[in-house]
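Exercise 7.
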Amino acid sequence: MWPRQTSLKCAMLNKTLHPYVVFLPLEQKTKVLNAIFGSKTAVDILKFSLGQGISNKIYQKDLVGKLGYSNKTIIENSKSLSKLGILTEKMEKKEQNGRIVWVKTYQLSDSGKWFALLLAEEKDLSTGEKAEILQNLFRAYVRWVKDLSDKLHIDKKMLEKIFTEEMR
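Solution. The predicted structure, written as tokens, is:
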């Protein structure tokens, strides 16, 4: 997908476009899109997550300290993203200055990773990350095609034949 040029030239807009795929929960798609793209804070949280590593946990205190938003703004946005399944929220026990404290951590969920990747620059992703994205995307798409073919009563052998022809 990425090794060769994947951009599309849109004649009407005279701009280079990049193809993106996002899997949205059917019943909450508007809420999810509004929560993420209706708030600069939410976008910045996703970008921060990318910077930390797409699978790494992030600490609430780091979000407050490095993004420059108030604690309340970070908490509200993180809570909203967690309720919608974009982030997973956990409490972690840590030792600080000789005493035990509980700190809040967040991590991108599987669907959260897809949204964060919308914001990623291709140059910032390693070849391994790109390969993993392609494999996960392909698996999700194949599952979707399989389910849809069952509903439409399409013979899976026909789909296998098409796949084999296209992979040559």
